[in-house]
């Protein structure tokens, strides 16, 4: 039985909405609506040390000003730690994770790579001390295939997963990778349309889907927007906040998704309806990135 299309946009509330995020949000929204599907917003605030409540509300308000509204109530990862813990303990029961007591200092001895000494020395039935993280046991060989409408046929080798990734830190926060997989499964997300910068996270996510025996969503990765210096347009690179509900900004973002010839005289909802009809990911260049045109640099400066 074919699943009903459900997509999502899941920003981290570490700053206001910027141009690169708007392009990614639009791509996921347009793809969902083109397939008569649902589109959700999820706030990925799993890392409480970096995320702020005021940024979460700012992101939701900014998306709303561009007509991008969640079809279901907006979830926040900070309210879902019990679900992540249950999944982690299920993996522990299956001996697919292990507690790790290594310090950053001790890992430096091994050039940052995990020395694989924790798992043999601590059985899963022994209660570890409070000062430990939980690491993924990456001992299964697998090649994961993704047929990406933009990036083409992609292969992800589980053997390239390095350093037994941390799923839960010593301070109690869960990893982005575990949280996003658990939430996408729980919310029945069928399609991911996101930036190509997240390709690096895909192997670990597909590995988690595999060992949890869950069906992964289809994946499509759009080129990320680069500034004039070749840096990704991002909060880390101080991309400025967007003007709320600015039609010129919206039309410019659509241009980078190969959607053009829409009149600025239209209302935002009318622009979006036309954009849905014009959306075709196969028209987007097969590339990991695309440079911001000089005439558009005002959007990030």
Overall tally of structural domains: 2
Given the helix and strand composition, which structural class is it?
Answer: alpha/beta
Name given to the CATH architecture of the largest domain: 3-Layer(aba) Sandwich
Shape: globular
Characterise this structure.
This protein has 301 residues and is of the alpha/beta class. The chain has helices at 19-34, 53-65, 81-93, 104-108, 118-121, 176-186, 202-212, 247-255, 268-278; strands at residues 6-9, 38-43, 75-76, 97-100, 133-136, 143-148, 152-157, 166-168, 191-195, 218-222, 224-226, 289-291. It folds into two domains: 6-80 and 188-202 and 215-299, 3-Layer(aba) Sandwich (Rossmann fold), CATH 3.40.50.620; 81-176, HUPs (Rossmann fold, 3-Layer(aba) Sandwich). Helices cover 31% and strands 17% of the residues. Helix 1 (19-34) packs across helix 8 and helix 6 crosses helix 7 (202-212).
Short description:
By secondary structure, the protein is an alpha/beta fold. 31% of the residues lie in helices and 17% in strands.
Fold topology:
Layout: E1 6-9, H1 19-34, E2 38-43, H2 53-65, E3 75-76, H3 81-93, E4 97-100, H4 104-108, H5 118-121, E5 133-136, E6 143-148, E7 152-157, E8 166-168, H6 176-186, E9 191-195, H7 202-212, E10 218-222, E11 224-226, H8 247-255, H9 268-278, E12 289-291
Domain Glutamyl/glutaminyl-tRNA synthetase class Ib catalytic: 6-239
Organism: Marinomonas balearica
InterPro entries: Glu-Q_tRNA(Asp)_Synthase (IPR022380), Glu/Gln-tRNA-synth (IPR000924), Glu/Gln-tRNA-synth_Ib_cat-dom (IPR020058), GluQ/Sye (IPR049940), Rossmann-like_a/b/a_fold (IPR014729)
